[in-house]
Amino acid sequence: MKTSKKILSSVAIVSLLGASACVTDPNTGEQKISRTGIGAALGGTLGYLLGGAIGGDAARIIGAGIGGTAGAVIGDHFDDQIKELDEQTAGSGVEVEEVGDQNAILVRLPDGVTFAT
Predict the structure, then answer these.
(1) Alpha-carbon distance 58 to 60, whole Å?
(2) Mean predicted confidence (pLDDT) in 31-56
(3) 51: which of 4, 42, 60, 75 fits an S-S bond (Cβ 3.0–4.6 Å)?
(4) Which are the contacts of 44, defined by CB distance < 8 A and separation ≥ 6?
(5) In Å, how far are 28, 34, 65, 102 from 10, measured between CA atoms?
(6) Cα 74 from Cα 80, distance rounded (Å)
(7) pLDDT higher at 67 or 25
């Protein structure tokens, strides 16, 4: 019975994290998964597993909390970097685009900004 409660709790937590990670890009209206949510989910999972390897149930809970928080902070930093880059280049003709399922940033410069060849 305890195992089924743990599984149900884990599924509920992952579902809530997944739902909270969904955001809408204000510029395009496109639905995306925020890096903050991805970082929290990955950090929490890694912390849970590492806590289980180090200690018992209490260590897993503590590890998941610390890992989730650290992952969210790092992911939020990456979200802020892209937002700042987009704001700084607004109106200049420079296009900032996320590519590869949000693993890279592509910056397109117009002819008037680049060097003459």
Answers:
(1) 5
(2) 85
(3) 60
(4) 17, 64, 65, 67, 68, 71
(5) 33, 21, 13, 26
(6) 10
(7) 67
